[in-house]
Design a protein that fits this description.
The complex is a heterodimer of chains A (426) and B (104). By secondary structure, chain A is of the alpha+beta class. Chain A is built from eleven helices and 21 strands. The N terminus of chain A is likely disordered. Chain B starts with 5 loop residues before the first strand and ends with a helix. In chain B, helix 4 packs across helix 5. Chains A and B meet through strand 13, strand 14 and strand 15 of A and strand 1, strand 2, helix 1, helix 2 and helix 4 of B. Strand 13 of chain A pairs parallel with strand 1 of chain B.
């Protein structure tokens, strides 16, 4: 099945919307859900509200592909919005928007977020039930206490849902808008929507407002009351925080990174908008996971002539397929043959900084840690690298190998590998 | 629109920075009272005889932000968040010890 579509414009002559063409439609029977195979690369706007690059031939899930409405889930970041047309259907252009209405629209379409589904509660849930559901999920996914993979991503959604549903005022406002939208549907806030609302309470930690989803910001704005109060006392701009993920190898050598920041700014009409700003940063050799870099004067602008705040970047290491990091030390599981462990050997070992020769002493057992002094993360007090031995035995596949194992068995008539099991049994 | 990236020098907070009380508040977003509670609870251990001349080591920024985050996300008072941090630290230490002993 192939998809067709046409380029459509909204308002002026710049092509704001174009059809995202799918080459194939794969339906999941009975589910109302479909997957499409993309013809062109672009950007997919995920459920979390995050943009992800997609390649041609990628398969993407879409919901509710029942009517002729475009599924506006795919967008490019700079003004050009891509939509997905129902395969075989001609995309019907929405009514043209006036420039005024357009200035109220975000650059790209947003999905309506079903906060009730995120917390796993009914729409009729009491405030108590919502609180209980949130606490349960917070215990499971809070990045400070959770060992779940992608805990951080999950908790961001959960926290945002609770910020809205946990607050009676915000919940009422959200319910009001929610009557008109389904989860994942393209969402535009009604014109003038947030101007009449002043929400109280602390929504975000300082410097964290930019982490909220676009959907949340479009509904509730960016500021909590605590922040405004603070500006009376401090004219200096607020300090901001962001995270940067690097590879372990980068920490050994230092690395230069271009960082994209979303910074709030005021447009010509005095509306709060987010601007993307790029910053080149040299991440120094020897940086440890969890450490912060301070970039002076790169935080929020100050009031009047007051100085701007600083920007703090927290460094995170991407998981490494070979090495495990513990502070300044790194660990490598090093497989050795049984005879290398028994007789001793010199083996070549990878480190994040290149290969080294390591002597495995004779008589080593599985689990023995061999230290490579100073081969951990560099710095004033460089860390160590530990190679943890894992003794391996090859399979006995040939007659020669079998007789070698038989000879081994004969050489160890009294050897009992399960001795420890017997001493602990009664 | 997107501008050309510009270069910015930076320092490693944990190695090269120490904070006064006011500086720590500015960097972490905490109020003075909150930082004082965290000192009383033992989460932060500044040098100096009193709030006027407290000096906090660089890693205090991370700890302050973690305490505020826990308090906010678990709806705790700061002493509760401080207890939580103690326990998390202890778990971390025990895990590291297990790992060093070769037990996963």
């Amino acid at each position: 099945m192939s998809a067709t579509g046409c380029i459509a414009n909204i308002g002026d002559s710049s092509p704001l919307v174009e059809i995202f063409v799918a080459t194939k439609l794969l339906r999941t029977p009975g589910l109302g859900r479909s997957r499409v195979v993309l013809r062109d690369p672009g950007y997919a706007l995920g459920r979390s509200g995050r943009l992800r690059k997609v390649q041609a031939a990628d398969v993407i899930k879409i919901d509710d592909l029942e009517d002729d409405k475009p599924q506006a889930r795919y967008s490019a970041s700079w003004g050009r919005v891509r939509s997905l047309a129902r395969p075989g259907a001609e995309w019907v252009q929405q009514s043209e928007r006036t420039p005024e209405e357009r200035s109220n629209l975000p650059d790209r379409p947003m999905e309506f977020k079903d906060y009730y589904a995120t917390l796993g509660v009914e729409r009729s849930a009491t405030q108590d039930e919502i609180k209980r559901a949130y606490r349960k999920l917070a215990r499971k996914y809070h990045p400070d206490v959770s060992k779940e993979p992608n805990a951080e991503e999950r908790f961001k959604d959960v926290g945002e849902a609770y910020k809205v549903l946990g607050d009676v005022e915000k919940r009422a406002a959200y319910d009001d808008v929610g009557k008109r939208f389904k989860d994942g549907q393209e969402f535009h806030p009604p014109p003038g929507w947030d101007s009449g609302f002043e929400f109280s309470g602390r929504d975000f930690g300082p410097g964290e407002a930019e982490e909220a989803s676009e959907f949340f910001r479009s509904l509730f704005g960016n500021l909590g009351a605590g922040r405004r109060e603070r500006t009376f006392r401090r004219a200096q701009g607020e300090d901001r925080h962001a995270r940067v993920a690097i590879d372990l190898e980068d920490a050994y050598r230092g690395v230069r990174r271009t960082i994209s920041l979303r910074v709030p700014a005021l447009d010509a009409q005095g509306h709060m908008i987010f601007e993307e700003r790029q910053l080149d940063v040299t991440i120094p050799k020897g940086i440890r996971e969890g450490q912060h870099l301070r970039l002076s004067g790169q935080g929020a602008p100050g009031e009047g002539n007051a100085p701007p705040g600083d920007l703090y970047l927290e460094i995170i290491f991407r998981p490494h397929p070979r090495f495990r990091v513990d502070g300044a030390d790194i660990y490598l599981e090093l497989p050795v043959a049984a005879w290398e462990a028994a007789l001793g050997a010199t083996v070549t070992v990878p480190t994040p900084d290149g290969q080294v020769q390591l002597t495995v002493p004779a008589g080593s057992a599985s689990g023995r840690r061999l230290r490579l002094r100073g081969k951990g993360l560099p710095g004033q007090a460089p860390g160590d690298m530990y190679a943890v031995l894992r003794v391996t035995a090859p399979p006995a596949e040939t007659p020669e190998a079998k007789s070698a194992y038989e000879a081994l068995a004969r050489a160890y008539p009294g050897f009992n590998p399960r001795q420890t099991l017997e001493t602990t049994s009664r | 629109m997107s501008q050309a990236p510009f270069f910015s020098a930076c320092v490693v907070v944990e190695n090269e920075v120490s904070f006064s009380l006011a500086q720590l508040c500015q960097a972490s977003g905490a109020d003075t009272e909150q930082v004082i509670i965290l000192v009383q609870e033992g989460v932060l251990a500044p040098s100096g005889s009193g709030p006027q001349d407290w000096q906090f080591q660089g890693f205090s920024l991370r700890r302050t932000r973690q305490a505020l985050r826990l308090a906010r996300d678990f709806e705790l008072e700061l002493p509760g968040a401080a207890l939580m941090m103690d326990l998390l630290d202890e778990i971390e230490t025990l895990r590291a010890r297990l790992q060093r002993a070769g037990i996963r």
